[in-house]
Write a structure and sequence with these properties.
Largest sheet: none
CATH architecture of the largest domain: Orthogonal Bundle
Radius of gyration: 20 Å
CATH topology of the largest domain: Tetracycline Repressor, domain 2
Number of strands: 0
CATH superfamily of the largest domain: Tetracycline Repressor, domain 2
Shape: elongated
Helix content: over 70%
Number of helices: 10
Order of helices and strands: HHHHHHHHHH
Strand content: under 5%
CATH class of the largest domain: Mainly Alpha
Length: 195
């Protein structure tokens, strides 16, 4: 019986997440009501409140789950690996993003959550771009903030476009392209890095 209950809870939560995503394609989170979400999910509002406090709590749960999985991927790689060959990590992230493309598109889209994007920027900077900054000194260190901003925003822009285009490129191709761009920028900052 407990397994059946767990299955029903998982199914209800999955339905609510799917319905929230559907509504966020059309409107911003602040314009979505629990009543509207519950009707679309074909549940009563009381059932919704058994799982979440409000639509923001639901969105927060979705984002937390994504970032947990995202960080699991990032934690598989040492900073030295990322610095020398970021393509393997990027490929793992792109495969994950492709498997969550509908949700990624919504969260990065016009009705998405700016906090999600800011958190994604910080994770990207801290885990992928940061390894290069430790070896830099003087003017190069000063210029680093411009480089990481360029690489971070450019990478997020590529991912957003890729998802909007239905992940039309194989993840391997996009990962190779992103590695060339990242290493090309890194070689400007540190001539010892080979692009």
């Amino acid at each position: 019986m407990a397994d059946g209950m767990d299955r029903r809870v998982r199914k209800t939560r999955a339905t609510l997440r799917q319905c929230l995503g559907q509504l966020m394609k059309e409107k911003k989170i602040q314009d979505i009501s629990v009543k509207e979400l519950a009707e679309l999910a074909d549940i009563n509002r009381g059932t919704f409140y058994l799982h979440y406090r409000d639509v923001y709590d639901l969105l927060s749960g979705i984002e937390a789950e994504m970032f947990s999985q995202f960080n699991e991927i990032l934690d598989r790689y040492r900073p030295e690996e990322i610095k020398e060959h970021p393509q393997k990590l990027i490929l793992d992230l792109l495969v994950f993003i492709r498997s969550n493309a509908d949700l990624t598109q919504i969260l990065m889209g016009p009705n998405g959550d700016i906090q999600f994007l800011n958190q994604l920027r910080e994770v990207f900077r801290g885990k992928i771009v940061e390894p290069w900054s430790r070896a830099l000194h003087g003017q190069r260190q000063k210029n680093y903030q411009y480089w990481w901003s360029f690489i971070t925003e450019g990478s997020l822009g590529l991912i957003k476009l890729w998802v909007e285009n239905g992940t039309d490129l194989p993840p391997e191709d996009l990962a190779a392209l992103m590695e060339r761009m990242i290493l090309g920028g890194a070689s400007v900052m540190d001539p010892e890095i080979q692009a």
